Amino acid sequence: MSRLDTSSSCSFDAVDKLMSTLQLAVHIPTFLLGLVLNLLAIRGFSTFLKKRQPEYIATSIYMINLALFDLLLVLSLPFKMALPQVESPSSAFCTLVECLYFISMYGSVFTICFISLDRFLAIQYPLLVSHLRSPRKTFGICCILWVLVWIGSIPIYTFHREGKYKCFHNMTDSTWSAKVFFPLEIFGFLLPMGIMGFCSYRSIHILLGRRDYIQRACIWTIATNLVIFVVSFLPVHLGFFLQYLVRNGFISECRVKQSISLFLQLSLCFSNINCCLDVFCYYFVIKEFRMGIKAHRPSTVQLVHQDTVSTRG
């Protein structure tokens, strides 16, 4: 997605060759680990749905939804590695693969954002929001997220050049127009990051005022998950912004454009590792669920604790 116009005198062949090698080194282990671990995570949280315990159902649904988006990203990685090396066999197929890749990315962003908001409300207003966390409502929210990210991806991938091109490369200037780029940046990243930051800050602030050792121990989990989110997605959207400047003529020096192309492709490459990092969160959640079941303490306080440890923020 980062290569500039191939008719330009500025060549990006060296950048693409380097990234082709690096993607193999990063994406192959990411694919193998992500496939196995996310399938296991879905299976693990599905067992808690079958138990029909209210204090675990909402969190389990959200976690399964996040694992599904991560799994979709994992399944798109082989195409992400192979298709940029050859001319697009079909514009429709290329568009589909690109849509699936970015749907998985922004689906994860929105799911994580909503989990963070849900956790904050559960901590701040546990009795008020308990009736809003029914399985049907939670499932409905997840379905809405899938619809939104699918609709949001449609205008981005209808701007490939006519004729020969490679998937994830050679997008036209229309793709980088302000009417496409700024809604993507604002609603696809800046707004979710702002909500996550606020909810994480307020959750930590509330937990710091409590004497419960278990709940206070969740502060590190909240902060760590927020850092992972920022590290995974901030460089990508910074790269998008820099590429927007390039494609709209604000940056014209060849070496700078090559550096921006490399930075964007590196950011996209390493952000994919996030689908494996999420797995650590999943299994800590399952461990906490099992500890809670063993202790036989289903209460409002436990509900807040489970939401705090379980959500990714």
From TrEMBL:
One of its GO terms (molecular function) is cannabinoid receptor activity. GO terms for biological process: bone resorption; negative regulation of osteoclast differentiation; phospholipase C-activating G protein-coupled receptor signaling pathway; positive regulation of ERK1 and ERK2 cascade; positive regulation of Rho protein signal transduction. It holds the Pfam family 7tm_1. It is found in: Cell membrane. The chain crosses the membrane at residues 24-45, 57-79, 99-117, 138-160, 180-201, 222-242, 262-285. Residues 37-282 form the G-protein coupled receptors family 1 profile domain. It is a multi-pass membrane protein. One of its GO terms (cellular component) is plasma membrane. SUPFAM superfamilies: Family A G protein-coupled receptor-like (SSF81321). Keywords: Cell membrane, G-protein coupled receptor, Glycoprotein, Membrane, Receptor, Transducer, Transmembrane, Transmembrane helix. InterPro entries: GPCR_Rhodpsn, GPCR_Rhodpsn_7TM. Gene3D superfamilies: Rhodopsin 7-helix transmembrane proteins (1.20.1070.10). The keyword Protein transport does not apply. Belongs to the G-protein coupled receptor 1 family. This is G protein-coupled receptor 55.
